[in-house]
Design brief:
This protein has 465 residues and is an alpha+beta fold. It contains 17 helices and 11 strands. Strand 5 (361-362) and strand 6 (370-371) form a beta hairpin. Helix 9 packs antiparallel against helix 11. The chain is globular. 52% of the residues are buried. Residues 2-42, 85-96 and 235-244 have low confidence and may be disordered.
Length: 465
């Protein structure tokens, strides 16, 4: 999650393009006639738990929470898809062959997979379904779908562009935008916190940072929404056929706008991130137009959606836990940082990413379960963030939780979210402004959640003050 060079927590470009290209929008596994190639150390899933079935993600939260707790108690990662469940075609690797996947649900396993990139590869694709080869050629590779050395090269270019001057200006922008949004809430009293506040803050901050002209921002936001609206969400076949390629067309339009801006900034650089990215020279390399488009899509789809969802979940959590809310408002300086991290842990805006085994590997050490080269694993960050062996009383919302080694920004390693600091800043500044000026602000009713297997998406959240 994050909004600068986000490389871990994200509904990424690859998520939108993968679903659009394959005509599939749900789940993390599938059903096919592929042979069962499980190693002897693999275990079957508990009865009634099927992470590959899109219906699982529409179950009540307590049911899913209990299912993940049961999976964490197993001696080895359970396997889904490849004839093991009711998944509907979303576990395919390249070429359409369903390989199934092992579910990594423990904190230690997700950390190991994240920090061993030479074993757990991102290059084949981290989303489900994996992006088709022609999509990657057409739209460029998102950083999340790259391994070293290409990933390291792009990350160096992006990191070099984030100068101290740029970051200082971004922090000023966050404060300004947060103030303007709370001004509007006071005067207009909107009903939906997501549209009025949570989505606006990261979108405006990213556009200001990139140097996107005001006159095309709404058009870009429309394309972002079209590209990501069905990521991880099951849809009836007739609905998928009614709008084939809609997400890809939206991405193409959005990237075309950004590529045009990149060409303009190469000729006439300005004091913005696009100019820095297209003129930066790191080891003789700078971002191409296609790379710029892929990076911008990642920033928008990942940064806006994840921060938006975290902000909305946070308001609701602080509403339904009045004791924690009173503690926070009683001393914002002391508790705001802890509250932000606990919101990210408890809600975990990104549910999962996948990896592909480069070599045979025993998880957790020489006596651990064996994973075979070429097999798929899915890293379930939300489950890891509720691991009883790491977090005492993990279902409790506790803004004083210390330590709080959550994986809401990824499990570390080269794909850890470079935007983690900025995401935290956006949340802290917005909540400070909101609770200082409108201390009675609270959510009304339950959030409208998308039944997504990919992100903990809040469609809308009514609020009042």
């Amino acid at each position: 999650m994050g909004t600068t060079a986000s490389d871990a927590g994200a509904t990424t470009t690859s998520g939108a393009t993968a679903g659009a290209a394959a005509g599939l929008d749900s789940g993390t596994g599938a059903r096919s006639g592929a042979a069962d190639v499980r190693p002897a150390t693999a275990v079957d899933r508990p009865g009634g738990v099927d992470l590959a079935d899109p219906a699982f993600w529409g179950l009540p939260a307590p049911v899913r929470t209990a299912a993940f707790a049961e999976l964490r108690r197993l001696p080895a990662p359970a396997r889904f898809g490849a004839g093991h469940g009711r998944g509907q075609g979303q576990g395919h690797g390249r070429g359409g062959r369903d390989q199934g996947f092992h579910a990594l649900v423990r904190h230690a396993d997700v950390v190991e997979a994240s920090r061993t990139p030479d074993v757990f590869l991102s290059g084949p694709g981290v989303t489900t379904p994996e992006p088709a080869r022609w999509v990657r050629l057409l739209f460029g590779d998102s950083m999340v779908n790259l391994d070293d050395p290409r990933h390291a090269q792009l990350r160096r270019i992006v990191s070099r562009a984030f100068t101290p001057r740029l970051l200082s200006r971004v922090e000023e922008d966050i404060r300004r935008v947060a103030t303007e949004l709370v001004d509007r809430v006071e005067h207009e009293r909107p009903r939906d916190f997501v549209n009025a506040v949570a989505a606006e803050l990261p979108f405006r901050v990213i556009c200001d940072m990139m140097g996107i002209p005001a006159e095309i921002r709404r058009a870009i936001l429309d394309q972002v929404n079209h590209a990501s609206e069905h990521t991880g969400v099951a849809r009836p076949l007739r609905e998928r056929l009614r709008t084939p390629g809609r997400g890809l067309r939206a991405l193409a339009r959005m990237q075309g706008m950004v590529a045009a801006l990149g060409r303009e900034r190469r000729r006439r650089p300005a004091d913005d991130l696009i100019s820095a990215l297209v003129t930066a020279d790191v080891d003789g390399r700078r971002l191409t137009g296609r790379e710029l488009g892929a990076f911008f899509s990642l920033l928008l789809v990942a940064g806006v959606e994840t921060t938006r969802n975290a902000l909305a979940h946070g308001l609701h959590l602080l509403t339904v836990h009045p004791g924690q809310r009173a503690l926070l408002l009683g001393d914002l300086d002391r508790h705001l940082g802890g509250a932000v991290d606990e919101i990210v842990r408890h809600s975990t805006p990104i549910i999962q990413f996948r990896r592909t085994l480069a070599v045979d590997h025993r998880l957790g050490g020489p006596d651990g379960p064996l994973l075979r080269a070429g097999e798929k694993v899915v890293l379930y960050y939300g489950s890891a963030n509720h691991d009883e062996t790491v977090f005492a009383d993990p279902e409790a919302f506790d803004i004083t939780r210390t330590p709080n080694p959550h994986l809401g920004f990824g499990g570390g390693g080269p794909h850890y979210c470079l935007g983690a600091h900025l995401a935290r800043q956006e949340m802290k500044v917005l909540y400070r402004e909101l609770f200082t000026r409108l201390p009675e602000v609270r959510s009304v009713g339950e959030p409208d959640l998308a039944p997504s297997s990919f992100d903990h998406r809040v469609r809308s959240l009514r609020f009042t003050f």
